Amino acid sequence: MTVRSRDRGRRWSGVSLVAVLLLVGSALPLPRRLNPDLGPYGPDKLLHLLGHACFTAALVAAVDDDGSARVAVVAIVASTVYGVCTELLQEIVPGRAFERGDVVAGLVGSIVGVAGWRRVASRSRRE
Asked: Rounded CA gap, 58 and 67, in Å?
């Protein structure tokens, strides 16, 4: 195995880890007493934002070596679709429900993740 393929494998391991954490976090049943209505801007939105920021940054890091805008857009779309799928999964999980606010927070997080990754990558290229 070459150094490049090992590095690529590590990159995809990060993507897989974040994807699994997002899935598990979304699929855990919550008893009613632990799932209060936090309104449209509850702390769970911050978790969605951060989770999707990490997921999208990991996706871009795994695929992009040259700062392609196309890769960034595809990563944002992939993360958002994944967020919609995990929200749909919540429809069958006790104590959970689909929330559009979670999808929006995931979309915003995806954009933040790409912007953050591009900033870090541009700094490392300059050095």
From this structure: 14
Q: What are 20-70's pLDDT values in tens digits? A: 999 998 888 876 655 556 666 777 889 999 999 999 999 998 987 677 889
Task: Print the SS3 string covering 61-123.
Answer: HHHCCCCCHHHHHHHHHHHHHHHHHHHHHHHHCCCCCCCHHHHHHHHHHHHHHHHHHHHHHHH
Domain holding 121, by residue range, is 3-126
Q: What is the pTM of this model?
A: 0.85
Report whether 114 contacts 76 (CB < 8 A). yes
